[in-house]
Design a protein that fits this description.
Elements lengths: L2 E4 L9 E7 L6 E2 L4 E6 L4 E5 L4 E6 L6 E3 L3 E6 L26 H7 L15 H10 L17 H13 L6 H6 L31 H16 L2 E9 L1 H18 L5 H15 L5 E4 L2 E4 L5 E3 L1 E3 L2 E3 L2 E2 L7 H17 L12 E5 L18 E5 L3 E7 L2 E15 L5 H16 L2 H5 L2
Parallel strand pairs: 12-16, 16-17
Antiparallel strand pairs: 1-8, 2-4, 2-7, 3-6, 4-5, 6-8, 9-19, 10-11, 12-15, 13-14, 17-19, 18-19
Helix pairs in contact: 2-3, 7-8, 7-9
């Protein structure tokens, strides 16, 4: 008897998602709790596991379809059971019935497949499959860097580049000639043709639900808020010295590395006490002030920027802050962040410095009213006691909603953060 696989609850107020990728194909064996399909919502990506061990017998939706919470999307049969016809996925195009004789039908069937039939069971996304076909590489010989070792388009391009730069293998031409196309077969599409020198291509990829939501929210912030950004710079010498002095003891005691983010979260918590409007929001004709600080920490995930929330950050220790951020970073990389992880948030910190950004103007995360942008640390000449010296400096940017936060308040807040970072003792004695 087949077991239904249903779309699970995806978070508060989320009623549907997009079927992003099938991780198993009909006829493949699955273990209990093994992910078989990946779903995307406007906030997170979720892998749906099989409720039982057995064989994936049916796929009831194809990749790209919108599915509602509670909908049956697949069925799991007993181990070894034959697979039933299923909805075509984005990886495999539906083919017309083949005539009994040789002709164009075999060519049509082979077109969407990977060249080496023995490896056709590999799970490849549409973009990866196109890259494999274009560059004539063997996916089974490429090390995947994606989630669970899956191939990415960059993996295929890197393998193709390495192949082109190395001497041709004796059997390479034989492989190319082993797949003749019948004269009556339609010409290959540009995405499936070999890339000639100087040839130009374009690829259309539908925006993911998450990317669409990011775009909508960022535009909403620009259309609604009166955005303004104020800047300052901060000497990171004291924080760098403190980390160097205590990092080993800190890691030994708490089991986590002491990073810069803990200092900045603490500095924001201290500054917000003096300037509470940066931790407030506008609702209708009212201003809502929070007596707690829930910090949204911008984290880069494979499918876009996400902002999990470190709750009650003003009450956490350095170790608790660092552990929370490290856990969110791992979940973002693994694609296991939940909607609850990103719910709420009263203030955002974004660290573009990890990517080498020198200076930027971040956009607030509605309905929040302010975001602090951190940037790369760079030695620059500064004047200290009348002498020009080199110091590790970082530019800070505070973008804020001018409807709620005055310029004086924004500058005061940023100066308080600067003072706390340049003299971390202030964090201990609440100055």
């Amino acid at each position: 008897m087949a077991t239904d696989v249903k779309v699970p609850a995806l978070g508060e107020s989320i009623t549907e998602g997009t079927l992003a990728q099938w991780l198993k194909k009909p006829g493949e064996a699955v273990a209990a709790d093994e992910p078989i399909v990946s779903l995307e919502t406007d906030k997170v990506s979720v892998d749906v596991p099989s409720p039982v061990a057995g064989t994936l017998s049916e796929q009831l939706f194809k990749e790209g379809d919108t599915v509602e919470v509670g909908a049956v999307i697949a069925r799991i049969g007993e181990a070894g059971a034959a697979a039933a016809p299923s909805a075509p996925t984005a990886d495999v195009a539906a083919s017309p019935a083949a005539p009994s004789g040789a002709g164009e039908a075999p060519a049509l069937r082979k077109e969407p497949e990977v060249e080496n039939a023995e490896h056709a069971d590999l799970t490849l996304s549409p973009a990866v499959r196109r890259a494999v076909l274009e560059h004539h590489v063997d996916p089974s010989k490429i090390h995947g860097t994606g989630k669970d070792g899956r191939l990415t388009k960059d993996d295929v391009l890197a393998a193709a580049q390495a192949k082109d730069s190395s001497p041709a293998e004796p059997g390479a031409q034989t492989v190319a000639k082993a797949t003749p196309v019948a004269p009556s077969a339609p010409a290959p599409q540009p995405a499936q043709a070999a890339v000639a020198s100087g040839e130009r291509h374009e690829e259309r990829v539908k925006m993911t639900r998450l990317r669409q939501t990011i775009a909508t929210r960022l535009k909403e912030a620009q259309n609604t808020a009166a955005l303004l950004t104020t800047y300052n710079d901060v000497d990171m010498s004291a924080v760098i010295d403190a980390r160097a002095r205590y990092k080993d003891l800190f890691e030994k005691k708490h089991g986590i590395r002491l990073g810069f983010m803990g200092f900045f979260v603490k500095a924001v918590a201290l500054a917000a006490k003096d300037v509470p409007s940066v931790n407030a929001r506008i609702e209708g004709d009212e201003i809502v002030y929070s007596d707690f600080l829930d910090v949204s920490v911008a984290v880069s995930a494979p499918k876009g920027l996400v902002v999990p929330v470190v709750r009650d950050a003003d009450r956490l220790s350095f170790a608790e802050i660092e552990k929370a951020i490290a856990a969110f970073g791992k979940k973002a990389k693994d694609g296991t962040l939940t909607a609850d992880d990103m719910k709420g948030g009263t203030f955002t910190i974004s660290n573009g410095g990890v990517f080498g950004s020198l200076l930027s103007s971040p956009i607030i995360n509605p309905p929040q009213s302010a975001v602090l942008g951190m940037h790369r640390i760079e030695e620059r000449p500064v004047v200290r006691d009348g002498q020009i010296v080199a110091r590790p400096m970082m530019y800070l940017a505070l973008s804020y909603d001018h409807r709620l936060i005055d310029g004086r308040e924004a500058v005061t807040f940023l100066v308080r953060v600067k003072e706390a970072i340049e003299d971390p003792t202030r964090l201990l004695i609440d100055l």
